[in-house]
């Protein structure tokens, strides 16, 4: 995930950077929302499509934390290629997936 500050001539990597499944990596990040009121301050909520998970990435952190999914499937604890995330005022994360029940 790249951050571009207003007036910047180049961006900076703020989440991921290399493709993979480790917590410091993302594999096809498909959607991202900003949670300005997250625990510990600002964080990004990222739909990590090919890793079948949603990751919360705190500002300044070198790795994310899985907040939904983490394995592929149709179970209530699984995701299948999440491609959309939303956040409500209470901090509840909503995930749109594909194929299965998500």
In terms of topology, how is this protein built?
Blueprint: E1 2-3, E2 12-13, E3 29-35, E4 43-48, E5 53-58, E6 65-69, E7 84-87, E8 93-96
Antiparallel strand pairs: 1-2, 3-4, 4-5, 5-6, 7-8
Describe what this molecule looks like in 3D.
The model has no long low-confidence stretch (mean pLDDT 92). The chain has 102 residues and is mostly beta strands. A four-stranded antiparallel beta sheet has the order 3-4-5-6, with no helix packed on it. The chain has no helices and eight strands. 0% of the residues lie in helices and 35% in strands. The two termini are 24 Å apart. It has strands at 2-3, 12-13, 29-35, 43-48, 53-58, 65-69, 84-87, 93-96.
Q: Helix-strand pattern, N to C? A: EEEEEEEE
The largest sheet has its strands arranged as 3-4-5-6
The overall pLDDT, averaged over residues, is 92
> By helix and strand content, what is the structural category?
mainly beta
Tell me the strand percentage band.
Answer: 35-45%
Helix segment tally: 0
Please report the total strand number as a whole number.
8
Biggest β-sheet, characterized?
4 strands, antiparallel
Shape: globular
- Low-confidence sequence ranges: none
What's the end-to-end separation, in Å?
24 Å
Helix content: under 10%
Radius of gyration: 13 Å
């Amino acid at each position: 995930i790249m951050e571009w500050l207003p007036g910047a001539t180049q961006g900076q990597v703020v989440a991921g950077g290399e493709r993979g499944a480790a917590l410091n990596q993302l594999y096809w990040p498909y959607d991202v929302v900003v949670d300005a009121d997250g625990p510990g301050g600002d964080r990004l909520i990222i739909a990590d499509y090919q890793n079948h998970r949603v990751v919360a990435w705190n500002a300044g952190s070198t790795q994310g934390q899985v907040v939904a999914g983490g394995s592929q499937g149709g179970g209530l604890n699984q995701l299948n290629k999440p491609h959309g995330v939303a956040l409500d005022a209470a901090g509840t994360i909503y995930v749109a997936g594909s194929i299965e029940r998500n």
